[in-house]
């Protein structure tokens, strides 16, 4: 009886996540999307959220972030120095499970911190920015993110609702053809201007201009209405999200998830080749395996 109650609750939460907002993933993709497996926890976090559950959240609700906007030009100087040294780059070792698919379409990054203290490489190369971030405990992760001309991030949603996404424009085209679209609503970056949004809504980004775009990209802890919810959020972040830490250099720590991802990626290669050969066969096998696992879990 208990397992059926669990199944009904899980399916109800997964349905809520799928139908939340105006833009949705294809059902075949949503079934295996990370956000589906995180749905029960995310629905609980939405219910406990201390800020409105909307596509965009007013930056003014987070006054502790004001120093970042006030000193954005200093931050930009360090970002430009990194770009000149070709340190804002994609991963070439399959050790960035959270953003691995983005690299194929031009997106690049340099991690400043990831649910921990600053990366050693960031402290060395970006001392002013890491000092600013260290003084703001609600910033759980941060990086410089570059989207070059022609770069694109296809529709996706992040799996965990325990944070909100903050973007601060550093080097932008200042053009509406360079934008992020959250649940169908567009925002175009501008130098020195910030935006906050809920990354668990489906979003995408595109730069069809002839100019580069670099932003300060941060995960900000989602405020909660109750202390127990804050404690739960921090426990999950500390013990699970932190395991997705990805290095800039060999001096930086690689989280457990990313160490495992290197091996998992090799196992995915036969599946990718199968999909390239015949998508119909790929999906039959994929959902057949999912169905078999569900039957094993819930058989009488």
Secondary structure topology:
Elements: H1 2-19, H2 27-32, H3 34-37, H4 39-48, H5 66-70, H6 72-84, E1 108-114, H7 120-125, H8 127-134, E2 139-147, E3 152-156, E4 163-171, E5 178-182, E6 185-188, E7 194-197, E8 203-207, E9 213-221, H9 227-239, H10 256-277, H11 279-298
Antiparallel strand pairs: 1-2, 2-9, 3-8, 4-7, 4-9, 5-6, 5-8
Helix pairs in contact: 1-4, 10-11
GO molecular function: dioxygenase activity
Transmembrane segments: 280-298
InterPro entries: Asp/Arg/Pro-Hydrxlase (IPR007803), Asp/Asn_beta-hydroxylase (IPR051821), IPNS-like_sf (IPR027443), Lipid_A_LpxO-like (IPR047694)
Structural account:
The chain contains eleven helices and nine strands. It has two domains: 59-254, Sandwich (Jelly Rolls); 266-291, no CATH class. Helix 1 packs across helix 4 (39-48) and helix 10 crosses helix 11. With 300 residues, the protein is α+β, with helices and mostly antiparallel strands. It has a five-stranded antiparallel beta sheet. A four-stranded antiparallel beta sheet has the order 3-8-5-6, with no helix packed on it. The mean pLDDT is 90. Its EC number is 1.14.11.-. It holds the Pfam family Asp_Arg_Hydrox. Keywords: Dioxygenase, Membrane, Oxidoreductase, Transmembrane, Transmembrane helix. It is an enzyme of class 1 (oxidoreductase).
Q: What order do the SSEs take from the amino end to the carboxyl end, as H and E? A: HHHHHHEHHEEEEEEEEHHH
| First-last Cα distance | 10 Å
SS-based structural class?
alpha+beta
CATH topology of the largest domain: Jelly Rolls
The CATH superfamily of the largest domain turns out to be: B-lactam Antibiotic, Isopenicillin N Synthase, Chain
Helical proportion? 40-55%
Instruction: Tell me the count of domains.
Output: 2
Integer average pLDDT = 90
Strand order of the largest sheet: 1-2-9-4-7
- Estimate what percentage of residues fall within beta strands: 15-25%
| CATH structural class of the largest domain | Mainly Beta
Spatial shape:
globular
Biggest sheet layout: 5 strands, antiparallel
Radius of gyration: 20 Å
What is the count of β-strands?
A: 9
CATH architecture of the largest domain: Sandwich
Give me the number of helical elements: 11
InterPro entries: Asp/Arg/Pro-Hydrxlase, Asp/Asn_beta-hydroxylase, IPNS-like_sf, Lipid_A_LpxO-like
Keywords: Dioxygenase, Membrane, Oxidoreductase, Transmembrane, Transmembrane helix
Enzyme class: oxidoreductase
Transmembrane segments: 280-298
């Amino acid at each position: 009886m208990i397992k059926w109650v669990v199944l009904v609750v899980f399916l109800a939460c997964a349905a809520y996540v799928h139908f939340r907002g105006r833009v949705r993933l294809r059902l075949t993709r949503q079934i295996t999307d990370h956000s589906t497996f995180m749905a029960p926890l995310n629905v609980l976090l939405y219910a406990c959220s201390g800020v409105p559950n909307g596509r965009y959240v007013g930056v003014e609700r987070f006054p502790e972030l004001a120093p970042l906007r006030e000193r954005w030009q200093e931050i930009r100087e360090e970002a430009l120095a990194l770009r000149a040294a070709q340190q804002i780059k994609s991963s070439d070792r399959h050790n960035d499970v959270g953003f691995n698919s983005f690299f194929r379409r031009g997106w690049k990054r340099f991690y400043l911190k990831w649910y921990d203290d600053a990366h050693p490489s960031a402290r060395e190369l970006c001392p002013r920015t890491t000092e600013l971030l260290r003084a703001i405990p609600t910033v759980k992760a941060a990086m410089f993110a570059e989207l070059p001309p022609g770069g694109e991030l296809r529709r996706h949603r992040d799996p965990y609702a325990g944070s909100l996404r903050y973007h601060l424009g550093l080097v932008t085209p200042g053009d509406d053809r360079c934008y992020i679209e959250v649940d169908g609503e567009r925002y175009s970056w501008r130098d020195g201007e910030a935006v906050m949004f809920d990354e668990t809504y489906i979003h995408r980004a595109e730069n069809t201009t002839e100019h580069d775009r670099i932003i300060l990209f941060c995960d900000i802890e989602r405020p909660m209405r109750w202390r127990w919810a804050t404690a739960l959020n921090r426990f999950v972040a500390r013990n699970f999200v932190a395991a997705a830490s990805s290095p800039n250099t060999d001096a930086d720590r690689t989280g457990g998830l990313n160490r495992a991802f290197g091996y998992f990626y090799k196992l995915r290669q036969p599946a990718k080749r199968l999909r390239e050969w015949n998508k119909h066969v790929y999906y039959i096998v994929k959902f057949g395996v999912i169905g078999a696992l569900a039957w094993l879990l819930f058989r009488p």
